[in-house]
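Q: I'm teaching a short session on how sequence maps to structure, and I want students to see two examples side by side rather than one. Could you give me a first protein with its sequence written out and its structure tokens following it? Keep the formatting plain so it prints cleanly on a handout.
A: Of course. Example one:
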Amino acid sequence: ERTRIDGIIVWEGGEYLLLKNVAKTQDVRAGDMIVTSGFSSMFPSDIYVGRIIEVGDEPNSLFRRITVTPMVNFSTLEQVFVNTKKPMPEREELEEIVAKKLQSNK
């Protein structure tokens, strides 16, 4: 939220999330809030995802290892919002082309 730097949130098991694909040169700090960007056709912008609790460097990489604590405890979650917005047709078409290309290269 503070710097609007782009990254990708992933879950690799456990209680924390990782913010991936953030270059070591980017300004990120423990305490920074993570929000959705609105670049995705699936999620609206400015939804709180979590807070950065640790920033380190990935070994042998140009990227940082950023640990994020989620805004919610998923094990006690009782209510959810289901987003029924479908991806853009152009995006779906591109994903299908890439999938077919990958299958033909095997």
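Q: Perfect. Now a second example for contrast.
A: Example two:
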Amino acid sequence: MASGFGDMQSLLKQAQEMQRRMQDTMRALGERTLEGSAGGGAVKAFVNGNQELQAVKIDKAAVDPDDVETLEDLVTAAVRQALTAAKELRERETAKITGGMNLPGFGF
């Protein structure tokens, strides 16, 4: 019975280490910036690795007061592209820790 307890302690230690590594990874992802663009770079969106929008840059040439809808579409496309890049980065980085398993309770 004692060996079962030792195995459980070892498993708990491994889970705690994985959680610590995941927290470190999330912190590092928050410091990474990813970019999405649309309209040949006329609109750029910047997000961090935690999928939080940081900034949107719009070239003056993309601003047409008579065609706001196009600008809105460009902004949406750029933000989506940046968020997709951030999601893919996050998935790659967390897979390094979890071996690709989806583990509940680890904040990802």
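Q: What should students look for in example two?
A: Point them to this: The chain has two helices and three strands. Also worth mentioning: The first strand starts at residue 33 and ends at 38.
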